[in-house]
Design goal:
Length: 119
């Protein structure tokens, strides 16, 4: 019943932009925080950015600061990741995840969307 669905991935150009969306549905509890993660081949999964449903941004990874922006839309139950000034190193599978109120970790995950940035 709980579902997180990502969209917006695909092929990006160096210096270009993409916007990822993640829509949450089926929750019977309050979501404390949503985060965007990415994992490139041969690398650890990393937290890119996280935002509370009150709109407080917790962090950006150092590698994306100044280029990526996380935001949310209450009405659509959607969190976005605006990616600007894309670099080849941004190539990864991007996943959104939700942390419910009262939980210390992210309990629900989307299937992920591939982002490939051409060099």
């Amino acid at each position: 019943q709980v579902q997180l669905v990502e969209s917006g991935g695909g092929l990006g150009q160096v210096g270009g932009s993409l916007r990822l969306s993640c829509t949450a549905s089926g929750f019977t509890f309050s979501i404390s925080e949503l985060g965007w993660f990415r994992q490139a081949p041969g690398k650890e999964r990393e937290l890119v950015a996280a935002i509370t449903w009150s709109g407080v941004v917790r962090n950006y990874a150092d590698s994306v600061k100044g280029r990526f922006t996380i935001s949310r839309d209450y009405a659509k139950n959607t969190v976005y990741l605006q990616m600007d000034s894309l670099k080849p190193d941004d190539t990864a599978v991007y996943s959104c995840a939700a942390r419910p109120d009262g939980r210390s970790g992210y309990a629900y995950w989307g299937q992920g969307t591939q982002v490939t940035v051409s060099s």
